[in-house]
Design goal:
Elements: H1 13-23, E1 30-31, H2 48-60, H3 73-83, E2 90-97, H4 98-113, E3 118-123, H5 129-134, E4 139-144, E5 146-147, E6 152-153, H6 155-164, E7 170-174, H7 187-200, E8 203-208, H8 217-230, E9 233-239, E10 251-258, H9 261-278, H10 285-295, H11 297-324, H12 329-333, E11 338-340, H13 345-355, E12 357-358, E13 364-366, H14 375-384
Parallel strand pairs: 1-12, 3-4, 3-7, 7-8, 8-9
Antiparallel strand pairs: 2-10, 5-6, 9-10, 11-13
Length: about 400
């Protein structure tokens, strides 16, 4: 009789969708599932700037000895210089295994600083936000951020949640290109929110995973920069998966921005201590590649150009979907990779099973997964399952 008893594993629905799509033999299949950028041939290419940086790394790297708990500190510094502007207060951070690793360290450090605090998360959100933060021991409360049926942001709900929060609570904010809705609050709403966060002493934890893929890098970083200059402390979890295309290399960083240097430097040391207990040190390759790109003006410009190509393709796809089918006009107004279509679970199931159109169970589509010549079939499939747009 086995002694080692485990509960039934709960497969991750998004990752399960990848497997299901791969196994589907229908030639006309369309992949709008997991959040991965694809070009118009359906490929997720390695960026040219990344390839060049990898070549240089191979030539230059002298050792693969340990770097330390906070990883490649030069990477952390130059990524920080890209993300934060010169008005930023003190910003110190640590390299992490992807944006998920950064979020985990954010949840852990928050739990150390405020063990009685509540972390507020707007719904809908990236499905891993809740399990990831709760498994760090954090108490989570949710509020409704977005109406799927009307495609409207419920900004008053967001303000009400912060207003109701206690001093020392925290809130997860999508820095840009909200996942799964593509619906971001406006600049003036960010300003209003930032003032309330200061007043209520609520800590913003910014999840920054799609910067550069909405309105361009500078515009996409504006909200994060506004928060770091306005709020006494901000945790920023940054991913290089999407904008550098380094998905499997698990490249990211967690930053503490503080108006007091001692708080930020102490946080950096604590990030390292937490990492030691979980994975000890982050993997080097992706961070070394990003460092090489950001430290070389020519390579950096090449990367920015490639990023711009991705952004333009996503915007063009959004506009084409809306032009093709005006019931999708909200898609053209939203930003980044995702939109959340007002579909029932039955309609989603029918799209997958009857039309080979793969999307997340909640109706989220990855716009960047669509090829231009697939738009017509996507729209026809939507019409045939009775989709008629937002309320
Ligand atoms: C997504 O939302 O599809 C991506 O962030 C991939 C993931 O890890 O869920």
């Amino acid at each position: 009789m086995a002694q080692f008893k485990l509960p039934e594993p709960q497969p991750d629905p998004l990752l399960q969708l990848i497997g299901k799509y791969r196994e589907d033999t229908r030639e006309e299949k369309i992949d709008l599932g997991v959040g991965v950028y694809r070009d118009d041939h359906g490929n997720t290419p390695v960026l040219e700037a990344v390839k060049e940086a990898e070549n240089r790394l191979q030539q230059e790297q002298k050792s693969k000895s340990y770097l330390g708990l906070t990883g490649d500190n030069e990477f952390v510094e130059c990524l920080g210089m890209l993300l934060f502007n010169s008005d930023a207060p003190y910003v110190y951070g640590a390299q992490t295994p992807g944006g998920s690793g950064a979020l985990r360290l954010a949840a852990e450090i928050y739990n150390i600083a405020h063990p009685q605090g509540t972390l507020w998360i707007g719904q809908p959100t990236w499905p891993n936000h809740l399990p990831l933060t709760e498994s760090a021991g954090v108490t989570v409360s949710t509020f409704e951020y977005f109406s799927k049926s009307s495609q409207q942001i419920l900004f008053d709900n967001m303000l009400a949640a912060v207003d109701k929060a206690s001093a020392g609570d925290a809130i997860i904010l999508h820095g840009c290109c909200h996942n799964p809705t593509g619906a971001d609050i406006s600049h003036s709403q960010w300003q209003q929110l930032a003032v309330l966060l200061v007043e209520k002493q609520v800590l913003p934890i910014v999840d920054l995973a799609y910067h550069g893929l909405g309105d361009g890098l500078e515009d996409d970083l504006a909200a994060t920069r506004l928060l770091t200059t306005t709020c006494a402390e901000v945790l920023v979890a940054a991913s290089c998966s999407k904008n550098f295309g380094l998905y499997r290399d698990r490249t990211g960083a967690i930053y503490m921005s503080s108006h007091e240097k001692a708080t930020a430097t102490r946080a950096q040391a604590v990030f390292g201590q937490i990492a030691r207990k979980i994975y000890s040190m982050p993997p080097d390759h992706g961070a070394a590649v990003v460092r090489i790109i950001l430290q070389d003006d020519t390579l950096k410009q090449q990367w920015l150009d490639e990023l711009q190509t991705m952004t333009v393709r996503i915007k063009t796809l959004r506009q084409s979907m809306s032009d093709f089918y005006p019931a999708l006009n909200f898609v053209a107004e939203q930003k980044g990779m995702f939109s959340l279509l007002p579909l029932s679970p039955e309609q989603v199931n029918s799209l997958i099973e009857d039309h080979a159109v793969y999307l997340a169970g909640d109706g989220r589509i990855n716009v960047a997964g669509c090829q231009t010549d697939q738009i017509e079939r996507f729209v026809t499939s939507l019409k045939s399952i009775g989709f008629s747009g937002a309320e």
